[in-house]
Amino acid sequence: MKKYYIFILIICMPFLSGCSDFLKEHSQDTYYVSSWKDLNEALIGSCYMSANISDVISNTTDNQYFIHFLGDELCECVDGAEDSKAYFAKEKVFGYFTWQQRSGTNETYTGYNIENGNWVEIYKLINVANNIIYSETKVPNSTQDEKTGVLKVDGEAHFLRAYYYFWLVNLYGKAYNPSTAKTDLGVPIKLSENVEDKYFDRKTVQEVYDQILIDLNQAESDLSQTGTPTSVYRAGVTAVRFLLSRVYLYMQNWDKAAKYAQEVIDANPNIVNLNNLADGSGFLSESSDETIFSMGGNILPCVTTFQYKGFQVSDSLYNCYDSNDLRKTKFFWHYNNYTGYIKVAPKSSSVASNNIYYDYNDYTVPYEGVKADVSDKFLFRSPEAYLIKAEADAYLGKEDDAREALNTLRKYRYKSGSGYNVTATGKDLVEIIRAERRKELALEGQRWFDLRRYGVCEKYPESEQIVHRYYYYESINSIVKTEYHTFVLQPNDAAYVLPIPQEVIDFNVGMKNNILPVRIYTVTKLND
What we know:
Blueprint: H1 2-12, H2 36-47, H3 55-58, E1 74-76, H4 94-97, H5 117-135, H6 144-172, H7 205-223, H8 237-250, H9 254-267, E2 291-294, E3 311-313, H10 315-318, H11 327-330, E4 332-335, E5 338-341, H12 358-367, E6 379-381, H13 382-396, H14 399-411, H15 426-440, H16 447-455, E7 466-473, E8 481-489, H17 502-507, E9 522-525
Antiparallel strand pairs: 1-3, 2-6, 4-5, 7-8, 8-9
């Protein structure tokens, strides 16, 4: 065990100084790695993402929470429980929520919050993966146990590196467009475990996706030989094929997207029947038959809180479910004008669900500092495979297959006896599939990426206008709103791509940034 601790310290030390200088890291010494088991422990402890719910209050711009504030799934609370003991630190997400030229812009335009937390965190994880991939070639590999162990570690490290680059390029690069991907700027690629004495520049979107596929193909080759993981927190070959189906969907390679989605369905066809799930009992869980893979524990109960300065599920999302759609009550809690997020099980049962403090007492407070069973962003569930299959087949003109996949999911999402079968064709069918993705994958970190890729889709392209209101108060401790500013993200707006964090641009001399327009707004005074 001592060897493991030394190894972890060595690979993590370069990042203890933080900031965006992932290029400054010293060469990692692998002298203390004696077997694949050492690498396996390093993989678990330092390469898989982990997050506590309290991070959303203390450091909202980190740990990927900000992705929920970019699209059309959340809005600020209009009403709230006025005697709540806490409020959401919403000023930390101002720059994301209002699509500013710098994501760290504060609500008074007088300074900047840290905006490179996500960038630094992901590149740390990528660097750990780089070291594990390098180190696995140096450990003993003679017995069958050693061979299997090395394949497992190598496969998971390649999978994770691919996943992290996929996340980065879909935040900081343009959506994959087959006609422009070779020139559109993506993110820097670093594959070496060694220091490279140079400034890093951005690779093209095509180059990043090519690397993602190289890693996933290696991961599939490795993990197809190692059996089924014993935990949903470790990636197996089904998780790899799941990510391949998602990547190919984004790349508009419909044939391969459908192929890999079907392989995932064959391996895990399970869909939870919501007719058998009580309201408020929790939908997302480690033990769910739908769960294929998850890492981290970051979810949203501390964001959607019925309190002043809080956020809630937007009306546009909540109202897209009809009365027979069970997700409307299984995924959300509605009270007067407020809609909260209850996809996970409550951590407390101190008040009834019809009580004004239900959301605050049963979700917000008890979840603070607690790691959830599964993440709602780094999560693979079998229903998404059905949706990928349906969308890809619809684009391919295989509409019978598309409807079959779609209706298989809807069967378990609608009240028994209600009409759930879709019979639409052509563009109407595609629009229903896209709407179904929005409803099924709500607040799982997918909507913003979907909106981006729909805008460049060769089949039925569409781009959405999104309107956000940002409220101002008399003071930091006041519950009295004085005005709100209205911001509009136009269709095909340049802000569908995040700016590279300024700290990264400052360090890497010559790196090009994504240029966003000045965000204008209108002011509406309240209580005049």
